[in-house]
Design goal:
The chain is mainly alpha-helical. Among the domains are: about 1-45, no CATH class; about 110-175, His-Me finger endonuclease fold (3-Layer(aba) Sandwich). The chain has helices at about 25-45, 45-60, 65-80, 80-95, 95-110, 110-125, 170-175, and strands spanning about 1-5, 10, 15, 20, 150, 165. α1 crosses α2 and α4 crosses α5. It is elongated and about 80 Å long.
């Protein structure tokens, strides 16, 4: 049993693609290879541009590659690091001028919805409206935080507090069906 030439950890030797025997553990060998690859990119920005162009072309033309990349991204976004990165990215966008303009435009266009939602939220906090524990359409028991208020009579001032409490699935079905059967 030999020792890694970098970290000294006990490893069995392996034969590289070149045919040479290597006495490095996998992490040390990967680090060496990655450093060598990125050092070339630091010297030649054209390599970076060419690699990015190849990636874009492959992503646009190869449906299997595109699906695999989407799967990889979705897996990453489910990890704690991915969730944290997504939140940080959204916060940066919301704090940017473009994000503020988008939020203001959405508020202006949908002000009646915004006011109705705020009224329901305030009524729930004040105790005027009680939020049940189960969906009023399918009866599924979920936590209070997971139920969504559905304005089945619209967002007019007279009906701002007229909501039925639905689980996410039922809310999507009711919205898709054009406010179909309630309760």
């Amino acid at each position: 049993m030999q020792k890694c030439s970098k970290c000294g950890q006990a490893v069995t030797f392996f034969t590289a693609k070149s045919g040479k025997q290597r006495f490095r553990c996998a992490p040390c060998d990967n680090t060496r290879r990655n450093n060598r690859y990125h050092e070339k990119e630091k010297v030649d920005p054209e390599l970076v541009a060419a690699r990015q162009q190849r990636y874009r072309e492959r992503y646009e033309t190869d449906a299997v590659f595109r699906a695999a990349e989407q799967l990889r991204l979705n897996r990453y976004l489910k990890t704690p690091e991915g969730k944290k990165a997504r939140v940080e990215c959204q916060q940066r966008y919301d704090a940017s001028e473009k994000g503020k303009v988008r939020q203001q435009r959405a508020q202006d266009v949908h002000s009646f919805k915004y006011l109705a939602r705020r009224a329901v939220s305030a009524a729930v906090k004040a105790g005027t409206i009680e939020k049940p524990r189960e969906c009023q359409r399918c009866g599924l028991v979920v936590g209070r935080r997971r139920l969504q208020g559905h304005h089945h009579n619209g967002y007019d001032d007279a009906h701002r507090l007229d909501v039925i409490w639905l689980c996410r699935t039922c809310h999507a079905v009711v919205d898709k069906d054009g406010h179909g059967d309630q309760a």
